[in-house]
């Protein structure tokens, strides 16, 4: 799939590194409709397990699309849900780092309106004969001043030894045995494997969204816009790094300004309902 996001800033001279992204502009408007269409290209692999994806063909295309859409959720209380943020993270790390989805959290929900706890994405990246584990965290927020402290609190909770070991047991039980990397991932997550070894092969992609006043005042990707949004990205990255402090795992920080979250989630919901009725 072709790249969609504009990478305004890629700062990789320190960890956490930074990807400052933008959906871009078209016809003097932020690319809202185009972003929604792009994200829904990823909905099947975000929502279905590996076996179902391998059977995805012209004969069952419509039923699988409907199933993928219905599995996200069917509640009217969509504005307070995080699945669309998880879909955003899924698309971004697939595009920027060519990650491979390992486990679909959505597939294992107990019901269509249930939430699923734990990491917001479970992907891997092939590193020769081994796998690098990507355990994602998302804050699909309007306010960046709330997103940063909330995600830092969650990051610190999610690397506690007891939490990690319990989460790995849960993840192991959800690995599709028909997936080509199943055995490698099971070995990595096995309780007998030292967490020191696991952490050497693990990173956490963090996606923070927020409503940006800079987006609201521009209608094209001009030099002025790029300078302003780049300065904002660097300022937010510095705050994130300072507030996080020392951290035992590699973090990749992704910042995505929105114009606005309310508009985006409304359009996503509209398209989801269409797919659910196909």
Automatic annotation (TrEMBL):
Pfam families with a match to the protein in the record: HamA (PF08878)
- Superkingdom of this entry's organism? Bacteria
Give every Anti-bacteriophage protein A/HamA C-terminal domain span: 5-272
Its protein name is DUF1837 domain-containing protein
